[in-house]
Write the structure tokens for this entry.
Amino acid sequence: MHRHGSYQRYQKPKGGEKFPMERFLCPPCGHTVSVLPANRLPYRPLEVDRLQGGFDAQAGVGTGLDPPPEPIEAGCLQRAWNRCLARVKVLQGAFGQILPAELHTAQQLWKQLRRGMGSAEVMLRFLARSCKRSLLGDYACLRPAP
């Protein structure tokens, strides 16, 4: 892989601040790859720790976010939570024996994931490496190149 430039991505849901996303080129296949920092989510302007805090609040784990989210960020967090609601069975299958067999809600799933995996960053790393998935979607960027 060779460095192949970068592009700007929004730091926060509100916009404004940006950060550089590094791009790399694979000379044999000609594909380019962007590398997300560990604290970022694919296709979402949320930091992993804010997502974790928002999901903790939804599941009744801990005290929630400090500082509380502003309306735009709250909307992003709610859309992410709704996406998680739709993926309970997919995620249960991905995490396999790490989770109990009977989980029916996103709240139960999140509580068990936090208990078994610890942080959202660890969950994301596990899903990307082991299953080529993410918490909120099965993105093309996580699949091997053809």
In short: Residues 40-137 form one domain.
